[in-house]
Amino acid sequence: MGYRNTRLPQALREEISAILQRELRDQVTAMTSITEVKVSAELSEARIFVSVFGSPTQQRATMSLLAEQAVFIRRLLGQRMRLRSIPPLHFVLDETLEHGARMGQILDEIAKELPPEDVVPPSDTTPET
User: Does residue 19 contact residue 76 with C-beta atoms inside 8 Å?
Assistant: First the structure.
């Protein structure tokens, strides 16, 4: 695999994370993490998957801000990275961590309702002697 397939998405992820922490930290109100970057084969677009820890309102506000700032972020990437061109950035809300946390909560609730494993249920048969 070449640079475009493996190292470019990782480099974009690192640089975009740094931009969010440094240049946009005052504007982003919720804890935000870049979970994945997918770059099309012809460099026509880069999809940036973002996990936003916060209320649905904070998630919408953060995703709106990222969409508004995509050109600014792309310009900063062009200044920092040695590439001929930076693909247009499309930010996508990544809800997999949120879904995983919810599944964990559901499993914990189910586990609380189950009897402990060390308790042997009474049997209907009497032991033979």
Answer: yes
Residue 65 confidence (pLDDT): 94
Closest CA to 53 of 45, 44, 62: 62
The domain at 3-113 falls in which architecture?
Answer: 2-Layer Sandwich (3.30)
Confidence category of residue 1, pLDDT binned at 50, 70, 90? very low
DSSP characters over 46-106: EEEEEEEES-HHHHHHHHHHHHHTHHHHHHHHHHHS--S-PPPEEEEE--HHHHHHHHHHH
The full set of domain ranges for the chain reads 3-113
Task: Order the strands of the 31-39 sheet from edge to edge.
Answer: 31-39, 46-53, 89-93
CA distance 41 to 44: 8
b/e sequence 30-63, b meaning 16+ C-beta within 10 Å: eebebeebebeeeeeebebbbbbeeeeebbebbb
pTM listed for this prediction: 0.72
